[in-house]
Predict the 3D structure of the following.
Amino acid sequence: MHPGRSVSRVFGALSFSVPLVASLAWIALAGPAAPAQPRGAAPARTHQVTVNADGSFSPPFLYVAEGDTVEWLLGAPTDSVVPVDPSAPDLCDGHKPYDPADPNEFPGPMPQWPSGIFTLGPDDRGNTIVSSPSQCPTRLVAAAGGQYLCRNGAEGATMPWTWQNPNLTGVFIRIQWKDVHLGPDNFDWTILDREVDRAVLNGKLYNLAFKAGSNGTPDWIFTDPGHPVTRLTFQDTGDDLACETPPCCGVVMDLGSPADPNFRHHYFALLRAAALHLRARNDRYRALAYIKPSGMNLLTHENRLPKRCECDCPVCNSEVWATQGNYTPAALYEFYQLQSELLSAEFPGKSMSYALIQDGFPRVNSATEYETCENGPPASPSGVEQTETILQGGRIFFGLDFVVQHNGLQTRPQDRDPPFAPCPDEGVHPHLGPYGNGPGCPNRWVLREGARGQVTGFQTTNAEKVGNPLELESSLRNARGNTDAIFLEIYEERFWEAEVGGPVLDPNGTGRTIAGWADDFHAFRRSFFPALPDPFPPVHRHVFTRTVPPSGDAQLFHYVHGSKCGQAGAAGAGVIAVLPQGVATPTITATPAGSATATATLTASATATRTATAPASASATSTTSPTQSATAAATVTRTPSATAAATVTRSITLTVTATRPAATATRTATAVHTVTATRTTRPCAGDCNGDGEVSVDELVRGVNIALGSAPARTCAGVDTNGDREVTVDELVAAVNAALRGC
């Protein structure tokens, strides 16, 4: 978002339908033109390095020229390449900080929108495997194959057995805010480092969230002399606490308000510190899959707040928010917009995953009218309006980087006792509706986001409601048959139980294992989102650029295998040597003794200097019929310098107006036997999600990329030439596609 724009105004406007007329005004782009390649320069080449099963590389040493591409051929999804500092005493510990501005930052593959199955890490004590119930001094949570799971592990620890399992994409690491943020600028990363290092060691990925809410909010924030948070006391049950005898008032908790600038200060400081800590090691940062917006919590990391107002309970939560917390929907929207902007900036190249509860926020309006136990809620906002506005804002401002999920996936309706009617259109993709509202049908707010082209995921409901491998299989069938989700998070005890007691989940069902279901998620993701980069590609590529003087020695880049370096029997590092300009690639010849000799030839190269001598301006206008129009005016100003090297300043102003009469579009979804479908569309400028049409939301994404407030990867369709920038011409092409169709 452009600085100075009122966040609350923007999100307030989003509570209404977005008009078809989009006024996308002023883009300012500045920067010198790319230098021309010197005459006589050799054409760029592609070199290949094989990543061997033992973590070694063939060849281990490679000479390349400026602009050459290196391809690492990966043997497994757990393979990775991580640059290291050669001055470190042990190369395996020579991890470098992750710097996206470095043209030679090449850890990879960098997983984007990864698919598959994740388990949930514990938000309290972890599990351990025991051979007898008598060995469990706390609580047994699962049994299979003559073994048992006992809840007596370390705080927040996922079992090593789980991290090592080849059928998982990774683990959702759930961190309590109070466990890592001990005071102002005082952080303890012990739990986070232990779990992330296990992900790296096993070639896994991880999702991450920091929970406030009950048992998560640190108490010191209310007494911090520099930024004291107003203490608000609530009592609520949520949906997670059973209550057999009313009144069911729930858990007492002290929270901060989204409107409180000091609460924002502390929670955002946590997120910035966590990002800085993870970026300090490229191997840890590479393994991050999804970072989850949170902070407005009740009992879990899901985005919801205490909201009930029961006459039999001592606390009316909506009254506390309105009268003590200065709560308004606009303040809530601003909290999430600012947090999402922070996450996008501090976790570059990573996607957010927003865990929704559709009616999870208190019924308080901008006039501080609130729900009471006698009079009920005010007319506005509706129960789901606040969540819907947050989703719409995330979709428009962050595009596909704003993933949406729901943490309540259950067994299919027809698999229950007694059975219910199946959800509508089971097996149809894309899942465009109608959507079922009965027991077991997946959350329709997530389904609607998927129908709009967003990436979506789910988490199974609590481990008691999906309580055995048969119910887990039904939930997996629900995810694949009734949603367009690309990943599913499941509880560790159910995963262990299924693998140890199976591996076939339901012999009378599909006959599939966890591994089979994981493969199905990966295949669906590749076919349903073909324009998105493969999170587990067979090849990792990087184009190398010299960042040292053009003359002199070769510039060396050392790297290791992300998970196998330092393990028993693993080989050492690989080296890429980028040669100075004019030095031919050495020819390496093996001698009978097994050594190598290298020869290099130095050649002269010419340098071209271009000087701008006169200002230039350009304008372009495109018009169509009176009922369909797109106009664009662009002004380019070039200012020459008096020196031999030209300095070019580009100032571009764009105004686009698009109008189109109402039309009716018919989209047909066809059920297929394999429950996997492929979208087949021709390329279309501005079509971010590959659905064959360009929406106003997608035009806004293009403008955000041009402004520099969103990365180009959030809409590859608008960046038609693949240069990671969006120009005026590309925006005009996108508008024309919106008007005329693809």
In short: The longest helix spans residues 261-279.
